Each structure stands twice: as structure tokens, then as C-alpha cells.
Amino acid sequence: xxxxxxxxxxxxxxxxxxxxxxxxxxxxxxxxxxxxxxxxxxxxxxxxxxxxxxxxxxxxxxxxxxxxxxxxxxxxxxxxxxxxxxxxxxxxxxxxxxxxxxxxxxxxxxxxxxxxxxxxxxxxxxxxxxxxxxxxxxxxxxxxxxxxxxxxxxxxxxxxxxxxxxxxxxxxxxxxxx
Length: 178
Known about the structure:
By secondary structure, the protein is α/β, with parallel strands linked by helices. The longest helix has 17 residues. It is globular and about 50 Å long.
């Protein structure tokens, strides 16, 4: 029997409930799901790679077919090929995400036609959530209760310990790779 393997990648700075939705669906759809933290040297991260991996591991520990990894210095499609994945899973939150992901799908197919891109649209309650959105909510009075519905418990605990570090982001709009 041919096992299906998929990579779901992002910066996960921090993981959100939107990311968890994608991971849950990926775990249902594929025999093996690799959640890969991508390292982009042009981005300033709030959390270290190790912290992001730990938050993801804590948030996905109940899935036997999910592993968390990271990659740097290679295209996502090259990483997917290196871990013998058949698929790349991507989320689409808006028409801007769609346009970006459509273009990336075409480039990925040019680079490796053996890997198929799969797109999911998260439900309304998590569709608008991005890591930048969550980080932007930290700070004002009552921020703890405001962000609690948008992040997994492991991320919420991490935020309660280190809320000041959230203000070190570079700013700007989140991309589809968030």
C-alpha cells in the first residue's frame, strides 16, 4: 500500500488555532504529516526556531501521524522531496493568499512535478487569524482574554510567560507562509 506523506510549512511565529485547524485536517487526510517550520533569513522572528517547534509539538502531540521539523536554505518543494512527501498542504484565508499560493503552486510544479499542492480554506472562526494579528493584540489591558480564543494552550502559556518579547516583531503584513 502506498502511504501518503504531506508537508505543511510556515513560520508559525507563533502557531495559531488556524494553523492547528490545518494540522488537524492534514492529519485526517494524509498517512503522515510533517509540520515544517521554515526559516527565512529576511524575517525577524519573535520566537526562536526551537520555541516554535516546542509550541507546535505541544499543540500536536495527540496526533500519532504528525511530526514537527524545520528547514532552511531550500525551497519548500525541495524540502518536501527530501523528506519523501507526495503533497504540500497550504491554507488560503483570502483572495491575496489564493493569488500567491496559485503562483507558488505553479513554480513548485515546475521544480518538482511529482509533488502536488493541496489547498484548504479554514472555517470562518479561524480564517482571519494570523500570527501577526495575534502579536498585534498583545499588550493593551485585557490582551490575555482577547487572544486566548485564537491560539493553542501551549502558545497561550508561552505568551503569559513572555509578553514583552511580542513587541520585537518587524511589522508589516503577514504572508501566506505565516
